[in-house]
# Entry
Amino acid sequence: MSTAAKLFCNFDFTVGAVAGQPNRYVERVAGSIPARTSCDPQIVVSGLGVIFHDSKEEYQSVADYYAGKSLLVTGATGFLGKVYIEKLLHSCKKIDKIYLLVREKKKVDINKRIEHMLDNPFFTRLKRTDPECFKKLVPISGDIRLPKLGLKPEDEQTLVDNVSVVYHGAATVKFDEPLSVAMNINFEGTKKLLELSQRIKNIEMFVYISTAFTHTHKKVLVETIYPPPAKVEDVYKFIEEYGDDELATLKFMNGQPNTYTFTKALSEAYLSKHHGNLPAVIIRPSIVCATSKEPLRGWLENWYGGTPFIMNVSKGWLRIARGDYKNGLDLVPVDYTTNLSIIAAAKAKRTKDVQVFNSTTTADNPLSWSDIKNNFSEEIVRHGKNDLPYPDVLFVQSRTALVIATFFMQTIPAHILDLWLKMSGKDPKYVKILHQVIQLRDAYDYFTINSWVMRSDRTRELHSSLSAEDREEFQCDPTQINWSEYLKDYSRGVLKYLKPRAM
# Structure
């Protein structure tokens, strides 16, 4: 510990005391103190600020906060939902119940859906260490698309009487979802869940999972609520007049890249304006990818996020795209996002305003395309899983250059290879795959041609305020990610857990 840090830790800090009582928290910038200097269990010094806990107040661990509490979770069977539930059961063992809002699907009842979910190898750790914990999972039949969430009166009353924390992760994440559908699921679903939460007797926190791409017209994105991209009444007037016309929708969204980010931005603004006295936080993850460490390295279960784009580059199918090598991608491990969601409910200050926490990496631990090539792609090649030799991507700026380069570097070779297959008595496939890859590339075009700096100051400060044990248990500080190690685990996870596909 530096001399400045020692003097600082020994200093009897009393500024701001009122009537002889010390402040609960006093924050100040500590420029001369090294990041992460730890003075004692009650004082944590970070490069972002210094948080002093009242010495008379005993630190409450994250696990202790959740002890005896019950939660309501939407989106439980999704990627983020599974990781969130597994971590809660593993690290917060005294949690009472986790109510899971689950809709019946293809005539499969909700209990069968949860049983099927728990068959996933992702839950192996819990089955080995604490198999009884699954009794804490209570499926509740419901659907955020339906009036009153499709809840039975008795189930609704159970939630009103027993829940302390609401975690809202259910959403449609399809970029090309019709606007009317995205509004019904992402906006109206959030609105209905907020209305229910405001009637819960002992509610302590509403956690809303959004996206870091809600306001991409700004090049530097900070942890604050931005104005909505449109008025809700104008959105419904547009839908009534134009329906789900794609070109009209794109023009109406005024710079928003797709209906997913558009409806998430509307939902954030609605939550900020209408949450009332209900404490609420918004978690904004960037491109959510495979787990970093827990409970399995490199685990993932779908081809969403950045995985299809990165994998097609690594396999050699995608060789030209619009963008810049300097841009990189803002990826975040899924367990970092779920850990942040858990600690935000437990430790975020209860204020009158909705607090935003970015689960992002570009500002504090940027990832370059060179990192992806030298680690993810090289690992795919090392395992012999690249379909075409020397996988790499050429970035160009203009659409004209993209079309010309694609024609010479991909279209002509694809037709030649298909001709060779036909002459060999085999079915052609390369032109078909190329068409699929081009569709994929076009869907990601907005995100590869643009770049953003997504700040996570509040997230890092929240994480730094935890005890040493909780900081280790609930890692969410982006500076802790070792990209070389993570990308290799990520690539191995794709090969191990996902079924092969061209897109």
The longest helix spans residues 399-423. Residues 3-52 form one domain. The longest strand covers residues 97-102. The CA atoms of residues 1 and 320 lie 50 Å apart.
